[in-house]
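Q: What would this chain look like folded?
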Amino acid sequence: MIAEDDIDDQFLFRTAFEKNGFDYKLEFVSNGVELIAYLTFCQGGGIEAYPSMIILDLNMPKKDGREVKEIKEHPDFKIIPVIIFTTTKNEMEVRRCFELGANSYTVKPVSFDGLVKTMRE
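A: My prediction, written as C-alpha cells:
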C-alpha cells in the first residue's frame, strides 16, 4: 500500500517496483483519509487482507502522513509496518514520526535510479 498524493511519484513507484522485478500488487491512495478507509475496508477480510506494509508520504492533503499514530493505535492496524517515505529531512520531524509509531523513515532519492535502488534495499 502506498499513500502518495503526487501522480508522478505514484508512476515512479510502480515503475521502480517493476524494474526490480517485484510482482507485488500495489494499491495507491492519495491521502490519509483514503488510507484509513482502505484499511477499514480490509478489516472484513481478516489479517490476510491487510497490506504487507504501508509506504507513507508525510505531506498529503486532508490527512497527512503524520497521522501514522492513528494507524499504530488501532488494535488491528498496528501490526502493519509503516515506512515514512518523504522529502522532509528535518531531524525533529524524523524523531516525531518514530515517536508516533513509524517503523522506518526514508528520504526520497532525487533520481529514478536512486528510487530503484532504495526499493531494492
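The mean pLDDT is 84.
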